[in-house]
Task: inverse folding
């Protein structure tokens, strides 16, 4: 991936974080799904719309389409990540050949003008491309829709080292008294947890390594820090825009939010990092026209003017721009998906210890952020905020009892057969 493009997408992610994290109690969003579509629109835009899109993109409009194609191709080549685009136009919409020829490879379709038929086709595309994680195309479609331009990103990664899952109750903080799906594990790699300084106070980051090219970083700020500020600091740290220090070099005590470091006696000479967090699932729907300025869409949404002469000789404006996203973090791995679309309208006994080692303990047991990051390029693929953990999974005691009895009966039958 081009470094310039990665920086531009990450900048949009950081700007969006300040708005998205304030929209609701929990959220997830991916600028990597929005940026290529803005780039394709910019390629066909003119006037103020082109200028505003360039500012949002962070690159010139005349290089945007090529950058979008390269980015989408690179994303689809990342192990565990699937990227796709789709374009559906009204039958009578005459497209400029240069613009349509520059669209990335992907689905091409025709809008019939029948709302139910088009809705079914678009929803089917969204569900298929995200393996059912996002079931509907996020934009409305009716007889006035001139085209739909969409992207779908689906990420699945399994942890190199799974967590141990159990039901636990949080002791303090906003989640105090709640029974949750707790996750824990330990490692000798102290520097999986790091602390970064930031204007709003330090943030603690935990790197959870996936089996492909994508890792997930959990980000914990000070209790009073706004979610957006914490996420922005986390993005700056994972993209190495600001420095961070690993637990092996941090002072003992509480050098970062949720982090404790001390020297302990141990039978083993290895240092240990003990991790506690929670399983979570977040979903969000975003209206990219609110705030339109963030995405360079203020002028483009004005239906009183023609903003995209490079797309069609017919006057066009952005009618709607939305993203639906979901993210799930559990003991075995992480998965996330987002569909973005634009429409155009006209852990006994304690043994004797021989070693003194460093022990770090980190706990994410109050609201925190998360970032899914491509390991090589440092592109932030998805970001979000966890306001509430998942409750304990409901157990089917009758089914478990029946399964236990069936297993016992099978064992008794096998023993009887061996005696005979």
Result:
């Amino acid at each position: 991936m081009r470094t310039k493009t990665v920086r531009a997408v990450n900048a949009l992610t950081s700007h969006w974080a300040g708005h998205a994290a304030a929209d609701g109690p929990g959220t997830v969003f991916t600028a990597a799904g929005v940026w290529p579509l803005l780039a394709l629109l910019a390629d066909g835009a003119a006037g103020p719309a082109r200028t505003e899109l360039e500012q949002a993109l962070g690159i010139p409009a005349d290089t945007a389409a090529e950058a979008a194609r390269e980015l989408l191709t690179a994303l689809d080549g990342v192990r565990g990540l699937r990227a796709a685009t789709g374009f559906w136009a009204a039958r009578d919409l005459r497209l400029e050949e240069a613009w349509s020829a520059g669209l990335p490879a992907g689905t091409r379709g025709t809008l019939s003008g029948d709302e139910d038929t088009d809705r079914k086709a678009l929803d089917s595309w969204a569900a298929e491309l995200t393996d059912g994680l996002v079931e509907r195309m996020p934009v409305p479609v009716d007889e006035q829709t001139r085209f739909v331009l969409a992207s779908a990103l689906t990420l699945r990664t399994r942890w190199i080292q799974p967590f141990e899952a159990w039901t636990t109750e949080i002791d303090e903080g906003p989640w105090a008294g709640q029974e949750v799906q707790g996750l824990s594990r330990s490692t000798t790699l102290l520097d999986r947890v790091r602390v970064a300084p930031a204007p709003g106070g330090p943030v603690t980051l935990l790197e959870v390594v996936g089996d492909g090219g994508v890792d997930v970083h959990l980000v914990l700020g000070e209790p009073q820090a706004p979610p957006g500020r914490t996420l922005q600091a986390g993005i700056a740290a994972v993209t190495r825009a600001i420095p961070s220090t690993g637990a092996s070099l941090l002072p003992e005590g509480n050098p970062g939010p949720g982090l404790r470091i001390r020297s302990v006696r141990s039978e083993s000479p290895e240092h240990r990092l003990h991790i506690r967090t929670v399983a979570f699932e977040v979903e969000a729907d975003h209206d990219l026209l609110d705030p339109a300025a963030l995405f360079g869409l203020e002028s483009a949404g004005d239906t009183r003017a023609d903003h995209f002469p490079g797309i069609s000789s017919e006057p066009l404006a952005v009618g709607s721009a939305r993203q639906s996203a979901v993210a799930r973090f559990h003991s075995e791995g992480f998965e996330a998906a987002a569909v973005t679309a634009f429409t155009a309208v006209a852990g006994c006994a304690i043994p004797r210890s021989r070693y003194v080692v460093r022990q770090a303990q980190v706990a994410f047991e109050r609201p925190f952020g998360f970032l899914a990051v491509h390991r090589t390029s440092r592109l932030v693929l998805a970001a979000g905020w966890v306001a509430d953990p998942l409750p304990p999974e409901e157990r089917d005691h009758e089914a478990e009892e029946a399964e236990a009895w069936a297993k016992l009966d099978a064992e008794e039958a096998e023993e009887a057969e061996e005696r005979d």
Notes: The helical segments are 3-20, 31-43, 47-57, 64-76, 97-101, 115-129, 227-238, 397-419. The chain is about 25% helix and 35% strand. The CA atoms of residues 178 and 317 lie 48 Å apart.
